Every structure is written in C-alpha cells, then in structure tokens.
C-alpha cells in the first residue's frame, strides 16, 4: 500500500515505516581488541582498567574507557592516527554505549588502510 501526499511532500509505503531492530549496548570489547597483534602493537591496562593500544611506530592509538574517558562527557572509545609533515592526522570518538561491533568495524577499516614503509 502506498500513501500519496495531498500536497507537497513525499510518498511512502507502510512497509517502509515498519520499525527496525538496531544493535544497541556496548557489547564485547574483545571484538575490537582481538584485531591487534603483539608483533605490531603495545597494549597497556592502566589503574582505572582503561585499555590503551599503540602501534609500535607510535602513530596509531586506540583507547577504551569502559567508565568514560576522564574529562569528557561519556567518551568510551578514542581512535587517533598521527599525521605527517604534509598530511594532517585524525581522531574518532565513540561514547561508552556504542556497540563494540561498530567500533570494531571502524578499527578494521583503519588497520586495512595502513601500509608498512
């Protein structure tokens, strides 16, 4: 069934308006952490039980803050890649309730785009 608009607007179907289920909740951080090998990365767990992962060249950083990163409003994950003299780096943040599956996908893509020099 399609509902036609009476004037300016859009038309849609009943099927398109049906509710969806979305992945919610923080999930398992191991989905993210299992992507890192001891050969290429250092892993440190601090006294707050926050986890920090650094590439051995120091240009990649991942922080997991299960209770929120100190000084932020609920930041749970931080990804940072340091730039070069010619190209700026970048940072990505996710809150504590972002599903680990989503963070794992972002980390996987960042790692896929890295190259040994």
TrEMBL record:
Q: Which InterPro entries match?
A: DUF317_SPDY
Reading the lineage from the top rank, the first entry is Bacteria
> What range(s) does the DUF317 domain occupy?
55-112
Per its UniProt record, what Pfam families does this chain match? SPDY
Query: What protein am I looking at?
Result: DUF317 domain-containing protein
């Amino acid at each position: 069934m399609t509902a036609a608009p009476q004037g300016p607007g859009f038309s849609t179907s009943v099927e398109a308006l049906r509710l969806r289920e979305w992945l919610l909740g923080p999930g398992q951080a191991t989905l993210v952490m299992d992507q890192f090998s001891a050969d290429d990365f250092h892993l440190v767990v601090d006294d707050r039980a926050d986890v920090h992962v650094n590439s051995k060249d120091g240009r990649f950083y991942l922080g997991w803050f299960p209770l929120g990163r100190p000084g932020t409003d609920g930041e749970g994950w931080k990804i940072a890649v340091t730039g070069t003299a010619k190209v700026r780096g970048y940072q990505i943040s996710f809150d504590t309730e972002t599903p680990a599956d989503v963070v794992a996908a972002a980390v996987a893509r960042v790692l896929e785009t890295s190259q040994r020099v």
